[in-house]
């Protein structure tokens, strides 16, 4: 299964706690930090909830 690279492009300041928890769970700490996560249904669902905060691309 392929991996996807998630990059935090907007701050979580002022965001609801559930969105902050998702960002932390994906391993993103600061703006412009990136994490490579597996491309499965659970990760896609989490990314969909914070798609306005992140940039997603396929990882090599």
From TrEMBL:
<comment type="subunit">
    <text>Part of the 50S ribosomal subunit.</text>
</comment>
<dbReference type="InterPro" id="IPR036919">
    <property type="entry name" value="Ribo_uL30_ferredoxin-like_sf"/>
</dbReference>
<dbReference type="Pfam" id="PF00327">
    <property type="entry name" value="Ribosomal_L30"/>
</dbReference>
<keyword id="KW-0687">Ribonucleoprotein</keyword>
<protein>
    <recommendedName>
        <fullName>Large ribosomal subunit protein uL30</fullName>
    </recommendedName>
</protein>
<feature type="domain" description="Large ribosomal subunit protein uL30-like ferredoxin-like fold">
    <location>
        <begin position="4"/>
        <end position="54"/>
    </location>
</feature>
<dbReference type="InterPro" id="IPR016082">
    <property type="entry name" value="Ribosomal_uL30_ferredoxin-like"/>
</dbReference>
<comment type="similarity">
    <text>Belongs to the universal ribosomal protein uL30 family.</text>
</comment>
<keyword id="KW-0689">Ribosomal protein</keyword>
<dbReference type="GO" id="GO:0003735">
    <property type="term" value="F:structural constituent of ribosome"/>
</dbReference>
<dbReference type="InterPro" id="IPR005996">
    <property type="entry name" value="Ribosomal_uL30_bac-type"/>
</dbReference>
<dbReference type="GO" id="GO:0022625">
    <property type="term" value="C:cytosolic large ribosomal subunit"/>
</dbReference>
<dbReference type="GO" id="GO:0006412">
    <property type="term" value="P:translation"/>
</dbReference>
